[in-house]
Every structure is written in C-alpha cells, then in structure tokens.
Specification:
CATH class of the largest domain in chain A: Alpha Beta
Number of strands of chain B: 25
Helix content of chain A: 25-40%
Radius of gyration of chain A: 28 Å
Largest sheet of chain A: 6 strands, mixed
Shape of chain A: globular
Mean pLDDT of chain A: 89
CATH topology of the largest domain in chain A: D-Maltodextrin-Binding Protein, domain 2
Strand content of chain B: 15-25%
Structural class of chain B: alpha+beta
Number of helices of chain A: 25
Low-confidence stretches of chain A: 1-39
Strand content of chain A: 15-25%
CATH superfamily of the largest domain in chain A: Periplasmic binding protein-like II
Radius of gyration of chain B: 33 Å
Number of domains of chain A: 3
Oligomer: heterodimer
C-alpha cells in the first residue's frame, strides 16, 4: 500500500508540475555571475592617439581615471588606412582615434570594429550627428568628439591700425586684401604645403556651392560610392572660385611651398593680416602677443553665403577583439565614455574653442569666437569632405594651380578627376624587414621597436646621441614585405619633428630630468609607454608614486661625461616640448629641417636596401 | 522460491502500469506543446491582423497629409516674395488656410541651401536636408533636430517649379509639412491591448525613428533590428527568419524574451515611406481569452489524464486482486469499459468546447430564425389579445436572446481582430434617419420625449460601414431608452463638420438623456467588458455588459472617438465623432422597398433549405410578396431540381449553406458548371444562411453566388436583394 501511495504521489506531483505549463520560459544565463578571478595584474589597454595633442593632458587624465589599467599609448598616423595596416597584421589597438575621417574609408574596417549602436555611449549623442556615422545596417563603429572650427583668423588690431574694415563678405574680403597689399603686408597666407590646407581652402572658398542641393546630392553619391568623379556642374564653379581667390589674394608658387609654421610666424610677427586656421590656432597664435584676433567664416558673395568649415577634432572606435568578455567590454566602453564626456572634451578643447556633438557636454566659446555663435544657431557649419583621396588630390591640384601648371578651372577639374580615376601611389612592395621588434615596454629592455628606430636614426644622421619619445613608433615592427605607404605608418605623424643641436652632458641631464618632471605639455611622460628612448646612452631611473626620477645617464656602462659636448637629435613635439626643454637647457640653436622618422625608414630600408639597426637595452627602470 | 514467483507475478502488471503512466505523461506533454504552438500561432495571427489594420489606418492618415501637401504645392506656385518677412507671412496664411483641422501641422519652405523658413521666420540650415537628396520628389521620415523644437513626421515635396524671393531671387525648392508626431498617434494607437502596446517606427537601416508608449522603452536600443537579433526567441525562431518573412510578406510576428518577460512583436513594412512599424506587446496582453481557453483546456486535459492515471493504478490494484480470483476478471472488464466511456465523454466534451464558438452562430441562429419567424407569422393572423400578449413576450425574449448571442460573438471576434469593416457608398443622413426610426420603435410602449434633429448636408454621400454606425448609435440610444424613466427626454442631435481635407467630413452624433445617470467611478469603466453598474436602480435592466465595450471598439476601429458625460440622477450625454470620406452620389444604389416588392410579383424561386421550419417560414413570407416558391431539401436536390427543369423555370435561387448531402457552396458550383445549361452560369443565386460573418459573405461570393442574406431573415432586405439581382 505504501508503494501505491508513493506512486500516486509521483503521478500527482508530475501532474501538478505539468499544470504549470503555459508559463514563460526562463532567461537562463542572462545574468551570469562575474566569475573573473581578481588579480593584482593591471589590465592592458592599447590606445592609438591620432595626434600628439592627446599627449598633453588627455593621456594623463585617462591614467588618473583608470588606475587599474596599464595604458599603452601610441601615436598613430592620422588616417583610417593606418588601422587597415594594423588589421592586416592582426594587431588592432583596443581603442582607435583618427581625425581624418570619411565613412566611405572607414567602412573597410567594419569587420574589425565593435558596434556601438546600442550602447549607452551612443545614446548620449544628438541623433542627427549619429546618423552620419550609421552604416546601412544600422551599426555604428565611430563616435565623434567635439567639432573643431576652421575659418579665417584675422589680426583685428592690425586691421584697426591700418583702418581696414573687418570683412563681412567676399567683396569686402577682397578689398581688405588690396588694402594690406598696398601697405606691404601680406593679406592672407597659409601653409599650402600641407594637404589639409589645400583641401580646406579649396572647399572653404565655395561652401555655398557644396551646400546647394546639387552639391549635397553629388556628395551623397560620392560618399556612397555611386560616383567616383567630381561633377562638372558642382566642381567647375568651385575651381573657378579658387582661381578667383588666388588672383585676389595674390597666391603663387611661393605659397605652395609654405610649411606649417611659416604663415603662422608671419602672422605672429605682424607681416600677415589673415591666415587659415582653427579655434585651437586662435589660442596658439595670438598675433604679436597682445593683438586681438578673431576667427571669421569663409566668405561668400553675401553675408548669407558665409560659412564656417568644421570637422570632429577626432573620432574614436573600439576593436571588437576581446569584446566578447563582458568585463573587458565594460572596461573599454567606460574608457571611451570618459574620452568623450564633459571632462574628456574639456581636455581636448581647452574648454573653449569647439562645438559639442553630445547632449551632455557644454563647451563655452571664448570671446575670439563670438562670431561663431549665430552660425552655430543657424547650423551654418559645413562639414569638410575628408576622404583620404580628397586630402591627397586636393594638395596635388591646388599646388598645380599655385605653381601655374594648370591655367584654367577646366584643366584643374580634369587633373583632379584623372587622379581620382588612377591608382593610389605607394602601394607596391618596396622593402622587406627581416626581424620583428615589439613596441611593448618592459623594465628590462624598454621599447625594442623604438630603440631599433632611434639607433637607425643615430646611424643615418651621424649624430652622437638620439632622444625620442617611444610612443612616436606607432606599432610593433612586423617582419615581412612593406609598401612605401605601410612602411611610413610605423613612425609617421604630424607631431614629430627632428631637433638637431649641440648639448653638453650637463644639458642632457637637464633635458632628461625636465622631460620626466614635465606635466601639461605635449611631450610629457604619463606612463611607461610614453617614456623616451635613448640611443648612444643609457638611462637609469626609478618609478615612484608621482612619476619617474633620473638616477644616472651612462654611456656603455660609464657615467655620461657632464662636460663633454655631443651632437644631439631630439625627436618629438616642436612648438611646446622642444621650446620648453631648450629654455631649461639654455639652448637657442636648433635645426628642425632634417628628415623625419619615416624618412629615415625609407632611406635605410628602401634607398639603401638595408635593415634597421638592432635595438639596445637603453633603460634600467627600478 | 515462492517469494520470487510472487514478485514475478506482480512485476508484469506493475511494468504495464508504469508504461501507461509514462505514455499518459508523454501525451500530456505532447498535448501541451501542440496547444502552446497553436496558441502562439493564433496570437501571432491576431497580432498580424491588428497591425494590418493599424497599417491601413496609418496609410490612410498619411495619404490625407499628402493630399494637403499637394494643395500647398499648388497654392505656392507662381509666388514671388519680396523678403523673408513676406515669405513668413505667406506661410502663416497657408497654415491658416490649410492646417486648421490638422492640429499639430506646420508648413516650411526650403531654399536651395537648405535654409528652413517657417511662419515665424528663417530657422537656419535644416539638419535633415540630407534626407532629400536621393532624387525622389517626395520624402516621409521622422525629424528631430535643433532647427525646430519637437519631433515631427515630415512630408516633403519638391516644388513643381521653384519659387523665388527678393531681388537676389533666392530659390525655394521644397515645401514641407511638419506633423507633430504626437498627433500621428491616433492612426496607430490601439486600445485592444489595454494600453500595453508600444509602437516603434523604424528606419530602413533598422534604427529607431520614433518610439511611443505609456511605459518605458523595454528594448532601449537605437538599432532595433540588432536588439531583436540578439533577443532570445521562445519558439526556436530567429530574427533572420522574421526579417526574411517581413521582406517577403510585408508583415511578420514573433515572441521573444526581454528582461525575463515574454513579449510579442509584429513588424510591418510601410513601403511607401521607407519605414517599418513595430508593435511590441507583453505576451500576457495578447489574445487573453484565447490564452485562458487554451490554459483551461490544458488544465482540463491534465486533470482528466491524472484521473486516468489514477484509474490505471486502480486497475493495477485490481489486477493484483484478479490474480487471486477469477471473479476479479469481470470487474476489470467493467472498469475498462467505464474508463473508455469516461474517456469518450471527456474527449467529446473537449471537442464540443473547441467548436462551440464556431457553431454558436449557426446552431443558435437557426432555431432563433424559426422562433422569430413563426412568432411574426402568428402575429399577422390577428390573434386574440391573450395570445397576442404571449406572442409579444415571445418576440421580445427572442430578440433579447439574439442580442445576447450577437454581443458575445461580437466581442469575441473583435478581440481576435477578425472584425472586418466594409465601407460602401451610403447617404449618411439616411443612417441617422434609420436610427431615429428604430428608436421610435423602442418608444412604442414608453412615455418618453424623443427629440431628433439632423443638420442638412449638401453632399451626404460618404464611404462608411452603415451597419456598424447604426449598431453604435442604436446601442447608445437603446441604453438611453432603457435607463430613462417615463416622462424623461432623449435628444438625438446629428451635425456634420469639415474633415481633415476637402474629401473628408466628420459626423458628430450627440445623444443626451435625462435618465438615471452614472457614477464617476463607473464612467471610468463604462467601456470595459462586462461592466454594469452595481446598484439597485440598474439591476432591473437586463443586458450583457458588453454593449458599450463593443460600441467603443467599433468607434475606435472606424477611426472615431466616443466620449461620455454623466451625473447620477441628472442624465448622460454621449458624443460620437466619426471621420468619413466623401464620395459621389451616383455610387449609392438605392432600392425602394415598396417598388421592389411590386416588381417581385410572380417571381419564381427555387429555395434550397434543409430545415423544415425555416423552409416553411421563408416560403410563407416570400409568397406573401407574390413570389412562387419551389423547395429543395438539400444542395443535391437543388441541383437535380434545377437540372431537371427547363431554362427560365426559376428566376432566382435562394441557397442555404449548411445542408446535409451537399452544402450550398458545392451546390452552387455544381449549378454553375452544368454542361448543357448555360443559364446555370447566369441565374442569380443568393446565400440565405445563419453564417453571418463578413468572411461568410466572402465565401458565398467566392463559391459563385451573387449575394448573401443572413438569418434570421429581414424581409425588407430579402426583397431589396432579390429585386436588385433580378435587375442586373
């Protein structure tokens, strides 16, 4: 009977369980426990920086905010194609940043990048901005930081001194140019040796045309890949405008060769009244020191046709590598959120000179940019068309115009379209590297990739010693074949300049000590990855809670002779870092016209067909 | 050894019993799974039907706005404004002229640079200008930009020829109607799910354009398609499958788990607008009645099978006993027989339950037809007062019973989304006249003042479902009569107002009474199902409590509104507003009953009807109109009678549908395809059946019939239908 009762109970139990049917299914595993074991080891995150502006206070800000993270900062080439190069070597950084950006170029990286479309981070952006980063399938890889504003920087004090009215449209701009030329002052100068200046002035002088319905239609077709040539209807008038601009401003072959610094120096010395620049330039180049400067728009035929040109200071993305680990995913997204939140953007924009894209960020415009406010309200901010080929070909064609190699708008248009239809230069294999060197920093060996390049630069330049910030080498040196373009990516960026000088041993001590104690400077050291690499001498230093202290400098194990004089090459940031350390060292003579790091790579590997010098153990970090 | 033998003896029946239990348990699981699958299909199907209806509403609503944009396009042609103030003034005039009745609309002009001009001046470059660059002339999308505060549904039209402003001849290329997205709500909101439905408008790339719901956004994502792709699907489906179905059929539904809650979603493409509409509803709110029925069936099945299992155990116990006594064999047989009977009864009950709803219509309406028909015939025989009083009571009770049946069926069908509206050209003023006449009929034994006033309407022809409108109004007026004491007043005011555009009007029906009124608490629930105010004053009024729920659903589904004001002891006022599309008067076919009746004298009818009572009623009533009737007892006989008589013996055939041997559909097809009888293809055949739903009407037409009459038959309708078909 007991067995019978047990069986009955079993049946009733089964029936009771079955009557529960029709309920909802459980969501198994949706809230899994975090089973990652706690370890003391820091989590490594590689951040590729688009420019050395990020080394100023931004990297330090990230280090302070995430003490549990071992950041590796590298200074990347400012191009989405650089990340294609790293993807080819299965070595994508964890967080990417780039200023030169076009969705048309970035789509090639889509398979390697994390989709941000449904993250809280994306939700903080204004929908209309986010739309321009959204692919056809709704995914979003890149998010912008605040907008850099580009226009004509004018020295208002100089205008007042010569009683020249401040321009309000193209006709008054031309009148101002004539007035300044008459008194021997260059009216408008710019660094037309730089591709971005060529592209921005070409587009800036004809924004009403580019923003017309026809102009917008053409751009949409170009960016979607539906057309791969400039439309005559839109672009012929643009080239006509540029020829007109060239004539009225008096641009010529000399301007085509101006490097980045020349026009700014002319402006700072009162020898030029206007130059093309950004909000950041307004802060950096305030005329003759006490002059009042203004950022004005690109001028159209009427005031209604005036526009500012803008672009995001930079965009960020995350590699999808490792993002299937929820803890890692959360960490990367937290870091990215910090990069673009109010604090992060304050570090980028100095809090004053840019326009935010995010709902939760407010950036105050400085007085020099008061003119901008009504343009922001009316949305008269043209976003530059900035595909990789636009930069390259705009420079080629604008320089042809300035050099008189093309005489008419039709010829310029034809030249542009011819290059668009041609192959991209620099893609054939030109070199082979036999040995792989890592750019991971270790206390025992330092950064071996950076050491190999510093040693190579020392050998080729013939100097006694080289001192270079290690993060200027952007990635591991991969063994294998290289095209010219890919070879340059190892150490190509706008921020790195060679500074050739004579230094005593004492001055070198001062140089290293100043560098290690420096904060808020584009050459500052914030962690191991941003330490400097030395060639020809060794550094013995100690890592402390507040940074690094120098113990000794040696040459082949013996202390550096403080009284001896050495030929010395500093490779790093020119305007802030180099000027600061030179002042500390009491050095005034420096030659910055030598080859850049990527030129040394070409010389060694392509022209001479050789190999990089072997790295040395240049550092003892205690 | 003896002990082992004893064990073996019990082992076999024990194993057998266990197998039985396992089989039964498996059976329960199988049944449960099958029913669950059916439930999901049914719920998805209901959702799809609902969304299809919403899509139709939305399409119609959006089209109205396109008509307005076309009007604006015409209005601005040839304009040249002196300056931006002039442009703003012109826009303000257009808003006054065109947008009065479309609350929430703004007009915008765009110049070649994308500068937006509004009635209050230029508003800078419009962020959404990029939407207009694909070469198409028209665009619809959701806009939420800094240029103009708010979220709008945009209707943008490239101007046929650009207009200019000022001496510089600034060219305006687009006219844009900005519709406040909140005011679009009326086109997609449904009360069917008790306000639990969330609406998502999704862009072509799968990202969210607009979200609307009373509660929070449970998906909480920008890329909706990606979120749906990553969601957990309950029935082994995937988003890829749903997307494929959406691309193929334009509509697809599935159930998913979100935040540990089951939801149903339904996607439907708004092809003309490059957008997709999604409804997301908690599973608990979808087809509640169907779910209750399914769960009830599952519980019944489980209880039944548990009882079976128990009985099997008893059998097992009996078997052991039988081992000891041959007499027990007989007992076992009896038990088995009893079990079989129990099973059969249970299965039969279950089957009957499942088919109850389907058969209710036919099986109850058919005898009701007989009761009402014979009562009417008897009333015409001049009975003595006592008999007449009895017949009147029978008639009243029958009609009430019919109302109850109809209400229960209607609410069930509305909930399942199967109600289909059949708008047809109609003189809308006649609808109100008819309702007023019906109401007068309610008042024959009451002492109530009934005031009816209707505004005149120059163009009274509209596309409307007159039957549903009549039902709504009669329901409200019927309640007014019921709940107003003798001596009270009922006022029925009908007015007509301009609609969204020149093609539309709004019919406004106001029904006020000085009756018992309602409490504030009850008014909040007046449109809920089975709601009747619990108080002594109202208990005397009979009803299902479904009337107002049905009324509200009908009004909602017709795109209209209903509101009520009431005070206890003072009275109630109901206001119904229905948007109606105008149509030409020539489309309305009218048939005067008296003239039609005159034309039917001598018409020869073949009546196929298996039910003797119904046949008798129909014959008497048809012959009273002068027609000659030949009856066939089923479909097969009808075919034979028609085939065996020469052409022109019959002018028309009235065909019941549900008949033994051969049903009405088969019989119709057989007559239509008689080889040697070309008149078989042309003779009018009218369905006369208790299957009264819209899909039944369609089935009749699909089978080759020319019309459809519902039982219980209404002679006026029969006369009109026969006359109409003979005139063809």
């Amino acid at each position: 009977m007991k067995k019978l009762l047990s069986l009955l109970l079993a049946v009733v139990t089964a029936a009771t369980m079955l009557t529960g049917c029709g309920g909802q299914s459980s969501n198994s595993g949706a809230t899994g426990e975090n089973s990652t074991p706690q370890t003391d080891k820091k989590e490594k995150v590689v951040v590729a920086c688009w420019g050395n502006q990020m080394l100023d206070t931004y990297t330090q800000y990230l280090c302070d905010l995430f003490p549990q993270v071992e950041f590796e900062f590298v200074l990347a080439t400012n191009s989405t194609d650089y990340y294609r190069f790293r993807a080819d070597h299965d070595d994508m950084p964890d967080i990417l940043s780039v200023r030169r950006f076009a969705l048309k170029d970035a789509v090639l990286l889509k398979d390697y990048l994390y989709d941000l479309s449904n993250t809280e981070l994306a939700a903080t952006y204004y929908g209309s901005y986010l739309d321009s980063y959204t692919y056809d399938d709704g995914s979003v890889n890149w998010l912008p930081t605040c907008a850099e504003v580009d226009g004509l920087i004018i020295n208002k004090t100089l205008f007042d001194e010569y009683n020249v009215p401040i321009p309000t449209d193209y006709a008054s701009f031309v009148a101002a140019c004539e007035a300044f030329e008459a008194v021997g002052i260059r009216s408008f100068v710019s660094d037309f040796a730089a591709d971005y200046t060529c592209m921005e002035v070409l587009q800036g002088a004809s924004i009403p045309m580019l923003q017309s319905i026809e102009g917008r239609k053409w751009r949409q077709q170009y960016e979607s890949g539906a057309t791969h040539e400039l439309s005559e209807e839109v672009w012929l008038p643009i080239f006509e405008n540029f020829f007109d601009f060239k004539e009225n401003v008096g641009l010529g072959a000399e301007d085509a060769a101006y490097p980045n610094r020349t026009p700014k120096d002319m402006f700072s010395e009162g020898k030029a009244a206007m130059f093309r620049g950004t909000g950041a330039d307004v802060i950096t180049f305030p005329g003759r020191g006490q002059d009042e400067v203004l950022l004005l728009p690109y001028f159209g035929q009427t005031e209604q046709d005036n526009w500012y040109l803008t672009y995001p200071t930079f965009q960020i993305a995350a590699s999808n590598k490792g993002m299937d680990d929820p803890d890692r995913e959360k960490l990367i997204l937290d870091i990215m959120a910090a990069m673009v939140n109010q604090q992060g953007q304050d570090h980028i924009s100095y809090g004053k000179n840019m326009v935010p894209y995010k709902k939760d960020v407010t950036l105050e415009l400085m007085p020099e940019m008061d003119n901008l406010k009504p343009y922001v309200e009316e949305n008269k901010l043209y976003i530059r068309l900035a595909s990789n080929e636009m930069f390259r070909i705009s420079k080629d064609v604008v320089q042809m115009i300035l050099n008189g190699e093309v005489q008419t708008a039709k010829e310029a248009l034809a030249a542009f379209n011819k290059e668009l239809a041609g192959e991209e230069p620099g893609t054939e294999i030109v070199a082979h590297i036999d040995t792989y060197y890592s750019n991971d920093f270790t206390p025992e060996h330092g950064n071996q990739a950076a050491s190999a390049i510093a040693n190579t630069m020392r050998k080729l330049s013939g100097v006694d010693l080289v001192f270079m910030q290690a993060c200027y080498v952007a990635n591991d040196i991969y063994a294998g074949d290289y095209s010219q373009k890919d070879l340059a990516y190892i150490a190509k960026n706008d921020g790195g300049w060679p500074g050739l000088m004579e230094l005593t041993g004492d001055q070198i001590y001062t140089l290293v000590e100043t560098t290690l104690s420096m904060t808020g400077n584009r050459g500052a050291v914030c962690n191991d990855s941003t330490l400097y690499v030395s060639s020809g001498f060794e550094m013995d230093m100690t890592k402390t809670d507040s940074g690094y202290t120098l113990n000794a400098l040696t040459m082949e194990g013996k202390e550096l002779d403080r009284s001896a004089t050495y030929s010395f090459l500093i490779y790093g940031e020119r305007d802030w870092y180099m000027s600061t350390v030179m002042e500390e060292m009491g050095v005034s003579e420096v030659d910055t016209t030598g080859p850049k790091a990527e030129n040394y790579l070409m010389q060694c590997l392509v022209e001479q067909g050789g190999q990089l010098e072997a790295p040395t153990d240049y550092i003892i970090l205690r | 050894m003896k002990e082992r033998k004893q064990t073996t003896k019990y082992l076999l029946p024990a194993v057998f019993a266990m197998i039985q239990v396992v089989v039964l348990a498996s059976g329960i699981l199988f049944m449960r799974n099958s029913l669950m699958k059916l439930t999901i299909e049914e719920r998805s199907s209901q959702l799809e039907e609902m969304v299809t209806q919403i899509q139709a509403n939305l399409d119609s609503g959006l089209q109205t706005h396109w008509n307005l944009v076309a009007g604006l396009n015409n209005a601005v042609q040839g304009n040249h404004s002196k300056n931006s103030q002039d442009v703003s003034d012109n826009i303000a005039h257009m808003e006054n002229d065109f947008c009065t009745d479309l609350y929430g609309c703004r007009v915008m002009l765009l110049d070649e640079q994308g500068t937006a001009y509004l009635s209050d001046g230029p508003a800078g470059i419009w962020y959404d200008i990029s939407h207009l660059l694909d070469g198409e002339k028209r665009h619809t999308f959701v806009s939420e930009t800094d240029t103009i505060d708010g979220s709008f549904l945009v209707f943008s039209q490239e101007l046929d020829s650009p207009i200019t402003m000022g001496e510089d001849h600034v060219r305006f290329t687009h006219i844009v109607l900005l519709k406040d997205i909140q005011t679009v709500k009326q086109y997609y909101t449904t009360t069917t799910y008790g306000g639990s439905a969330a609406t998502y408008v999704i862009k072509k790339n799968g990202t969210l354009a607009y979200f609307d719901a009373d509660d929070d956004d449970v998906i909480g994502a920008r890329n909706i398609y990606k979120a749906l792709e990553e969601a957990e699907y309950v029935q082994g489906r995937s988003f890829d499958m749903i997307k494929e179905q959406l691309d193929r059929d334009g509509i697809a539904a599935a159930n998913i788990m979100l935040n540990q809650t089951e939801y149903y979603y339904c996607l439907t493409s708004l092809d003309n607008y490059d957008m997709t509409l999604m409804l997301l509803i908690p599973a608990d709110c979808v087809a509640v009645s169907t779910m209750d029925m399914m769960n009830s069936a599952i519980r019944t099945g489980v209880i039944f099978i548990s009882a079976m299992a128990l009985l099997i155990l008893l059998v097992f116990f009996s078997l052991i006993k039988v081992q000891r006594s041959s007499q027990m064999v007989k007992l076992e047989q009896e038990t088995n027989k009893e079990l079989n009977q129990l099973r059969m009864v249970a299965e039969s009950a279950n089957a009957a339950k499942s088919t109850f709803l389907n058969n209710m219509s036919h099986d109850i309406r058919t005898p009701m037809n007989a009761i009402i028909g014979f009562t009417n015939i008897a009333l015409k025989q001049d009975p003595n007062p006592e008999v007449r009083a009895c017949l009147d009571k029978i008639s009243d009770s029958s009609e009430h019973l019919l109302t109850l049946i109809n209400d229960v069926l209607d609410i069930s069908r509305i909930e399942s989304g199967k109600i289909q509206f059949m708008p047809a050209p109609v003189d809308i003023t006649e609808v109100a006249d008819t309702v007023a006449n019906i109401t007068q009929g309610f008042l024959s034994d009451r002492e109530l003042n009934f005031n009816f006033a209707q505004a005149t309407l120059e163009a009274p022809y509209v596309l409307a479902d007159a039957v549903r409108i009549r039902e709504v109004l009669v329901n409200i007026l019927g309640n007014a009569v019921k709940f107003t004491n003798d001596g009270g007043t009922i006022t029925f005011d009908v007015s007509y107002h301009p609609g969204a555009d020149e093609q539309h009007i709004v019919a406004c029906y106001s029904i006020a009474d000085t009756g018992v009124g309602m409490s504030e608490e009850f008014i909040e629930h007046i449109f809920d199902e089975f709601s009747q105010e619990e108080n002594s004053a109202r208990t005397k009024y009979k009803g299902t409590g479904l009337g107002m729920a049905i009324t509200k659903r009908y009004v909602d589904l017709m795109g209209g509104t209903i509101c009520v004001e009431s005070k206890k002891g003072i009275g109630s006022t109901f206001i119904v507003e229905l948007p109606l599309e105008l149509t030409g008067g020539e489309k309305v076919r009218k048939q005067d009953v008296s003239s039609a009746t005159a034309k039917l004298n001598g018409v020869k009818i073949l009546l196929a009807e298996d039910n003797d009572l119904n046949a008798e009623i129909a014959t008497i009533q048809l012959e009273e109109c002068g027609m000659r009737v030949t009856r066939a007892a089923d479909g097969k006989e009808a075919v034979e009678v028609f085939a065996n008589h020469p052409a022109a013996t019959f002018d028309i055939i009235l065909m019941d549908v549900m008949m033994p041997t051969m049903n009405g559909y088969e019989a119709t097809k057989a007559i239509r395809s008689l080889d040697d009888r070309p008149d078989g293809r042309t003779i009018p055949i009218i369905a006369m059946t208790a299957n009264a739903f819209a899909e039944d009407v369609q089935a009749s037409l699909d089978a080759g019939m020319n019309g459809h009459l519902s039982k219980p038959i209404v002679m006026d309708e029969v006369v009109r239908t026969i006359a109409g078909n003979l005139e063809r």
